[in-house]
Amino acid sequence: MSQPVIKLFKSIKELPREEKFAPGHAMCAGCGAAIAMRWLNKVVDDNTIFVLATGCVEVTTTACPYTAWLRPCIHVAFENAAAVASGIEAAIKMLQKKGLLNKDVRVVAVAGDGGTVDIGLQALSGMLERGHKVMYVLYDNEAYMNTGIQRSGATPFRAWTTTTPVGKVLKGKLQWKKDIDGIVLAHRPRYMATTTIAYVVDMVNKFRKAYEYSREGPTFVHVLCPCVPGWRIDPHMTVKVSRLAVETGMWINYEVEGGVFRVTTRVPKRKPVAEYLRLQGRFRHLTDEDIQIIQKYVDEQVERINKMVGEVVIGPVAKEEKAEAKT
User: Fold this and answer.
1) Less crowded by CB within 10 Å, the N or C end of the chain?
2) Nearest-5° Cα angle at 313, 308 to 318
């Protein structure tokens, strides 16, 4: 299969300046998804149709009769973004075959974790299995934030939500975050990547790769997007929390391009997960024992990823060890 020539950016100075995501939308101050959508719109062509699943992004950017999207977009249900995107892609293909459409029109589906990891999983699997030429973007704020901060399959272990309360009996979500990336990779998409809004160049380059590779088959980009009200953080903390997710190993930026697995944001020495968890109100109830359980799980996940790329990365260094090392 031929390798497309894709222009990638090396620094923030090279990133596109023209705004294609209109201001005046109703997304929260400090919203991680708003940052992701702004940069996504900078790298796609004007001949693009967006398919927006119901969720935070859709309800805050398309309040009738207004829209923040400067390209055509269609609002669909929570569960069928991938199915509708598949239908649009098939219709475009047929119109081109009949000579009724001479443009190269691309399709980009955008959905949250609830509409992807849970109720949209069947449609997504079908889209990937059938090989539709669609770019799918999952903005992951780790709960059903739009409808009241209910837990989703992407909600982390022990996190507070309105349906995983914290009290004498329950102490947050009982299950670990669903491995949606592993599920997607099992379908062998043309391109798949994880990223987060603190690493803008990494995120934009992955958007661009996924967009270009979608000319050949389905692509998938999973973006971690901190949520101010759902994560119980101040608006100015969004980028810091996003960066700490990577620096602690709670989130790993990687891509699978043509079957080749590559970590794109290297962390020579991870910080303890406590530094990430303690900044968020949804984890305020965690005990030291809870944090150690999470730390052990993260260590195992990082080791698993490292084995896939054939590397070893040093684990977190506790503050006491740092102080002892200085002496």
Assistant:
1) C
2) 140
Euclidean distance between CA atoms 67 and 61, whole angstroms: 6
Phi and psi, residue 314, nearest 5°: -65, 140
Lowest model confidence (mean pLDDT) among 21-35, 193-207, 308-322: 308-322
pTM equals 0.93
Pairing of strands 48-53, 260-263: unpaired
Beta bridge partners of 194: 222
Report how far residue 213's alpha carbon sits from residue 236's, in angstroms, rounded to the nearest whole number.
34
Query: What residues have CB less than 8 Å from 43, skipping those under 6 apart?
Result: 16, 204, 207, 208, 211
214-246 pLDDT, tens digit per residue, is 999 999 999 999 999 999 999 999 999 999 999
pLDDT, tens digit, 9 for 90 and up, residues 134-157: 999 999 999 999 999 999 999 999
The answer for 127, left when phi > 0, alpha when psi is -120 to 50, beta otherwise, is alpha
Q: How far apart are the first and last CA of the chain?
A: 56
CA distances from 262 to 123, 169, 191, 194, 284 (A): 27, 42, 12, 11, 34
Q: ∠27-31-33 over CA atoms, to 5°?
A: 90
Q: Report the distance separating Cα 14 and Cα 223, nearest Å.
A: 21
Domains of the chain, each with CATH number or no CATH: 17-326 (3.40.50.970)
Query: pLDDT digit string (tens) for 96-126?
Result: 999 999 999 999 999 999 999 999 999 999 9
Q: Is 57 helix (H, G, I), strand (E, B) or coil?
A: helix
Residue count (the chain): 327
